[in-house]
Amino acid sequence: MSGIDALKDVLQETGRSLKGYARRLFMARVVEDVFDGVAYRAQEELGWNRETISKGLHELRSGVECVDGRRGCTGRKPAEAHLPNLLVDIRDLLDSQSQTDARFRNQRLYTRMTAAEVRRQLENAKGYRNDELPSEETLRCKLNMLGYYPVRVQKTQVKKRSEKPTPSSSRSNASATKSRGLTTSC
User: For 90-130, what is each residue's pLDDT tens digit?
Assistant: First the structure.
């Protein structure tokens, strides 16, 4: 590996390790010193973004940091920020409908209400409008965050008590044939 290739690798690695203003300032200083202020040449040689270099050159010459769009952006606010009583209302609805694990193996609260049903109940019982409520997926996440886990309730199955065969069962046909004394021959 030649000295120029090694220098390129060091510059690229250093550029990747820095972030934001420090990275742009580093790129701009390299472009000013090595490439005579021509961003296009640095793009060709080092693979850096020319627009980032131009922004860094502007910051280097003016001495003022350009605030990019990601700085200060805190992201989307949670549903509780828009609806401060949402979690309290969800808890009010689900406390009467929930039960703990029957074997007491964990602290989870199981409920029969799905997120869609919680959404309907919030509209009907608590007076929320449809357009202001979060989606079912968001409500499902809120339910899990509060410790409620919707589970399906298994339908009960009727257990037969009598051993007496029914007329349509195969056991009853075989026993009826034997009891009548019918024989078949082929």
Answer: 888 887 776 665 666 666 666 777 888 889 989 988 889 98
For residue 44, what are its two tokens? 């060709």
Measure the CA–CA gap between 133 and 142, rounded to whole angstroms: 12
User: Residue 84: helix, strand or coil by DSSP?
Assistant: coil
Per the structure block, which two tokens stand in for 27? 């790129």
Closest by CA to 35, choosing from 46, 20, 24, 23, is 46
Task: State the Cα–Cα distance between residues 112 and 103, nearest whole angstrom.
Answer: 18
Residue with token string 């200083």: 29
What's the pLDDT score for residue 24? 92
What's the one-letter identity of residue 13? E
Taking CA atoms, 127 is separated from 59, 82, 86, 123, 180, in Å, by 53, 15, 11, 5, 71
- Which pTM does this prediction carry? 0.44
Give the distance between the most distant pair of CA atoms in the chain. Answer: 112
- 83-97 pLDDT tens trace: 999 999 988 888 777
Q: How far apart are CA 14 and CA 9, in angstroms?
A: 8
Angstrom distance (rounded) from CA 126 to CA 89: 7
